[in-house]
Amino acid sequence: MLAFNMLHGDQQQALQVLTFMVNGESYALPILYVMEIRIWTGGSPLPSAPAYLKGVMNLRGAMIPVIDMHVIFATEKKHKTEDESGNVPAAVIIVELGGEPAGLLVDKVQDIVTLTADDIKQIPTAAGQETHKILSGLITIKDRIIGHLDLDAFSKWIELPNLNGSESAPVKVTNG
């Protein structure tokens, strides 16, 4: 079941998604979740953090955890063409996860696409339960199959450190 309702009366409402790439594969997430997009210039690692937590970045005085989507999607980062400074271009999509801002480290932000509910198809059951903790459906755009990231389910599956509070929250991926 999709995590959003796009029907209003007898008409379908349009849904805009932001498409992005991770290791040559395209994914999408609802644009309403996107707070901003930043160029990844590096961050500060956290000791004993899980592999998916790339570190933290300073966003106008707030410490924002950055999740490496290569680890989440279980892909190894391919080598890319470096820019003139020797850096591999990457982007951080700032979203709200569980009521707190977090960054999603991706290779590239692509387009904003308008969809309807009919454009989002069910994930085959052969994909397994872990896929359903991350994706809510599949989208076909110009012969590309794109995974639709379900941020509500994802925020329940992943736990992030409490960076702005007085107590530290556990940092782990849960099985439930």
UniProtKB/TrEMBL annotation:
<dbReference type="InterPro" id="IPR002545">
    <property type="entry name" value="CheW-lke_dom"/>
</dbReference>
<dbReference type="InterPro" id="IPR039315">
    <property type="entry name" value="CheW"/>
</dbReference>
<dbReference type="GO" id="GO:0006935">
    <property type="term" value="P:chemotaxis"/>
</dbReference>
<feature type="domain" description="CheW-like">
    <location>
        <begin position="14"/>
        <end position="160"/>
    </location>
</feature>
<dbReference type="Pfam" id="PF01584">
    <property type="entry name" value="CheW"/>
</dbReference>
<protein>
    <submittedName>
        <fullName>Chemotaxis protein CheW</fullName>
    </submittedName>
</protein>
<dbReference type="InterPro" id="IPR036061">
    <property type="entry name" value="CheW-like_dom_sf"/>
</dbReference>
<dbReference type="GO" id="GO:0007165">
    <property type="term" value="P:signal transduction"/>
</dbReference>
<dbReference type="GO" id="GO:0005829">
    <property type="term" value="C:cytosol"/>
</dbReference>
